[in-house]
Amino acid sequence: MDRGEKLRALFALHVAGARMGRSHDFRALVDLAGPRLFAHARRLSDDADTARDLVQEAWAAITRSLPALRDDRAFLPWALAIVTRAAAREVSRRVRARETAAELTRAAEEPGVDPPDLRAAIAELPAGQRAVLALFYLEGLSVEEVATALAIPPGTVKTRLTHARARLRALMTGDDHGRI
């Protein structure tokens, strides 16, 4: 049995115990997975405090969702995906805050530009395109980083960016011919 297989078996043992309400098994899960979850959150976030918050949010979700985990041996990738989703939500919250601040700044500096029109055009995009657009352009993440944050393949990020750009261009220039 290799190291990875031993680790999966150990996780499975503690997941089963945690499901039965054994607090020492849950603590063992935290001890085993916690550093890995934090390292992943740290890679996805900009600082250690944010990473700690993401991991805390993830543990709350893990606790609630543990009974639904179908394969106890898959605990670690499942938990890492929960951290990824928590990071994506955090990025979305930050993007919304930065978008608002940027629009207000532009409106104050460039009276000829009407940010509400841009905001309305972005709001017309499907949620997946809005998220990719915001992470790539507003957060300055690479395609690979956006893929990681949203837990989607890099090719999907590229496709959504292409469609979002074309759609925004059409909406902003009035060339959308009534299509939404």
Commentary on this structure:
This protein has 180 residues and is an all-alpha fold. The chain has 2 domains: 3-84, Rna Polymerase Sigma Factor, Chain: A (Orthogonal Bundle); 88-173, Arc Repressor Mutant, subunit A (Orthogonal Bundle), CATH 1.10.10. It is 79% helix and 0% strand. It has 8 helices and no strands. Helix 1 (3-19) crosses helix 2 (23-44), helix 6 (127-138) packs across helix 8 (154-173) and helix 7 (143-150) crosses helix 8 (154-173). The mean pLDDT is 83.
The general outline is elongated
> What's the count of strands?
0
Tally of separate helices:
8
What does the average pLDDT come to? Answer: 83
The secondary-structure element order is HHHHHHHH
Structural class: mainly alpha
**CATH fold name of the largest domain, please?**
Arc Repressor Mutant, subunit A
Low-confidence stretches: none
Rounded radius of gyration (Å): 21 Å
Q: Describe the biggest sheet?
A: none
Q: What's the CATH H-level superfamily name of the largest domain?
A: Winged helix-like DNA-binding domain superfamily/Winged helix DNA-binding domain
Q: What is the CATH architecture descriptor of the largest domain?
A: Orthogonal Bundle
CATH class call of the largest domain: Mainly Alpha
Percent of residues in β-strands: under 5%
Counting structural domains, the number is 2
Please give the share of residues in helix.
over 70%
End-to-end separation in angstroms reads 55 Å
